[in-house]
Each structure stands twice: as structure tokens, then as C-alpha cells.
């Protein structure tokens, strides 16, 4: 684990981003704002606003009410459905 000041981080931004990308734990310390861990995002990390998230939930609820969903009543039916995705 490497602990650095935010000033040092700004001076060598690329170096520390590369280290974090390679799996090294990087902790940024700020007198004013506390400490933060630098963590790279993976392809699976979803970035969306709260508004977008709740909009998707509302749309999914609406589609379910309209009968546009899929009902699965057994383990076998679930496996068959997942195999076809």
C-alpha cells in the first residue's frame, strides 16, 4: 500500500493511475478532505445517475404491469431461458 498526499498525486498523476490499474493500493491523504482509496473501474462497473437508475426501474415496472415480462415457474424453465440468452 502506498500513501501519498494529494499534492504528490497531482505531480505524478500518470504514475499513480498506472499503479492503481496494475492492482497496487493507492491511498490519497488530504488534510482538508480526509483519505481516499484510488480504485480503477472495471468493464462491469455501471456508471449512471440516480435519475437514470430510477427511470430504468420505473420503465421495468411499467413493462411488467403491461405483461411484457417473462414468467418462469420452474428451475428447468429458468435454465432453458438463460441458455437462450
Structure in words:
This protein has helices at residues 6-11, 13-21, 50-65, 75-83; strands spanning 2-5, 26-30, 34-38. It has 85 residues and is α+β, with helices and mostly antiparallel strands. It has two domains: 2-38, 3-Layer(aba) Sandwich (YefM-like fold); 50-83, no CATH class. A three-stranded mixed sheet has the order 1-2-3. The longest helix has 16 residues, at 50-65. The two termini are 41 Å apart. The mean pLDDT is 93.
* Whole-angstrom Rg: 22 Å
Number of domains: 2
CATH class of the largest domain: Alpha Beta
Mean pLDDT: 93
Strand content: 15-25%
The CATH architecture category of the largest domain equals: 3-Layer(aba) Sandwich
Give the ordered list of helices and strands. Answer: EHHEEHH
- In spatial order, strands of the major sheet run 1-2-3
SS elements, strand count? 3
Gist?
The chain contains 4 helices and 3 strands, in the order E-H-H-E-E-H-H.
Secondary structure layout:
Elements: E1 2-5, H1 6-11, H2 13-21, E2 26-30, E3 34-38, H3 50-65, H4 75-83
Parallel strand pairs: 1-2
Antiparallel strand pairs: 2-3
Amino acid at each position: 500500500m502506498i500513501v501519498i498526499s494529494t499534492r504528490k498525486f497531482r505531480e505524478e498523476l500518470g504514475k499513480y493511475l498506472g499503479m492503481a490499474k496494475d492492482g497496487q493500493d493507492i491511498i490519497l491523504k488530504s488534510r482538508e478532505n480526509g483519505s481516499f482509496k484510488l480504485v480503477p473501474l472495471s468493464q462491469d462497473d455501471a456508471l449512471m445517475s440516480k435519475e437514470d437508475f430510477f427511470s430504468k426501474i420505473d420503465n421495468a415496472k411499467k413493462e411488467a404491469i403491461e405483461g411484457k415480462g417473462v414468467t418462469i415457474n420452474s428451475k428447468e424453465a429458468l435454465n432453458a431461458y438463460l441458455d437462450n440468452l
